[in-house]
Design goal:
The chain is α+β, with helices and mostly antiparallel strands. The protein is built from four helices and seven strands; from the N terminus they run αααβαββββββ. The protein has helices at residues 7-57, 76-79, 115-118, 127-131, and strands spanning 123-125, 136-139, 142-144, 160-167, 230-232, 239-244, 249-253. This is Prepilin-type N-terminal cleavage/methylation domain-containing protein.
């Protein structure tokens, strides 16, 4: 006579499988996120290399941040595109993102939403940190942020040119009681204005793309009172990808941002 499983034996097997699943699933999730982080850093390296090629071709001048005089066609993500090797199937108009895909160098694999609906890029230009000449009014309602000279950068290897970023805005405020630390006082956002800051980037939630430029503590795009709060976004196990002014790329721990105020000489977001 063949003997089947008893109810106790079946329950023990199910319990063992459940325990193994509870142990292994987080490991698989971490491995997938690590792979996405590797792809994001690869994107950063290509953007950094393209920037250095552009700088050499244009008299050691960094790309324009954004310009209304040409509907943004000379902004960094457009002018770097010819220097980036891409498949013909992924050639897109970087102004309106027609035909964008997750294979785009400008899109982080961990960015939420589809690129065409979410926004033009996962990486923001540090236009306030010394990579541009600041806002220039060309008259007639036109203006922009023309690129600065490489000679004016004190430590290119220690100044972030692009940061993996997102529009953070209101949804993060209930999660972070010190969300507005680093917001300039004139915006009325409040908070502690000098570093080290008390905010917690690990709990921030993004609600849209950074579009083109990332804010920095003490800068106008930092507070959600302006442009929704464009901030570096730690999508990869509490780390974010940074592309430096000399072209190299590395991952930055989220809480490193607490040191990046304009009054701190070790800030990597300011041309100190």
């Amino acid at each position: 006579m063949r003997r089947g499983f008893t109810l106790i034996e079946l329950l023990v097997v199910i319990a063992i499988i459940a325990i193994l699943a509870a142990i292994l699933f987080p490991v698989f999730a971490q491995a997938r996120e690590k792979a996405r982080q590797t792809a994001c850093i690869s994107n950063g390296k290509q953007i950094g290399t393209a920037t250095m090629m552009y700088v050499q071709d244009y008299d050691e001048t960094y790309p324009c941040g954004w310009g209304s005089q040409d509907s943004g066609r000379t902004m960094w993500r457009n002018v770097l595109q010819p220097y980036i090797q891409r498949a013909k199937t992924d050639q897109v108009d970087m102004y309106n993102m027609a035909g964008a895909s997750r294979n785009s160098v400008y899109v982080c694999p961990s960015q939420p939403g589809s690129p065409a609906d979410y926004g033009p890029t996962s990486y923001g230009y540090n236009y306030q940190g010394g990579l541009t000449q600041g806002w220039r009014d060309y008259g007639g309602g036109q203006g922009g942020f023309p690129g600065a000279s490489m000679a004016g950068i004190n430590q290119p290897g220690n100044l972030i040119a692009y940061a993996e970023s997102g529009e953070v805005g209101g949804p993060s405020k209930p999660l972070d009681p010190f969300f507005n630390d680093g917001s300039p006082g004139w915006t009325g956002c409040g908070g502690q204005e000098t570093s080290p800051y008390r905010f917690n980037p690990e709990v921030w939630k993004e609600r849209w793309s950074v579009d083109w430029g990332v804010g920095q503590p003490g800068g106008e795009d930092w507070g959600d009172c302006r442009n929704g709060g464009r901030r570096p976004m730690p999508r990869h196990a509490k780390m974010w990808t940074a592309i430096f002014a000399d072209g190299h790329t590395k991952a930055i721990p989220a809480n490193k941002m607490r040191e990046m105020g304009p009054n701190n000489p070790v800030s990597m977001l300011h041309n100190n």
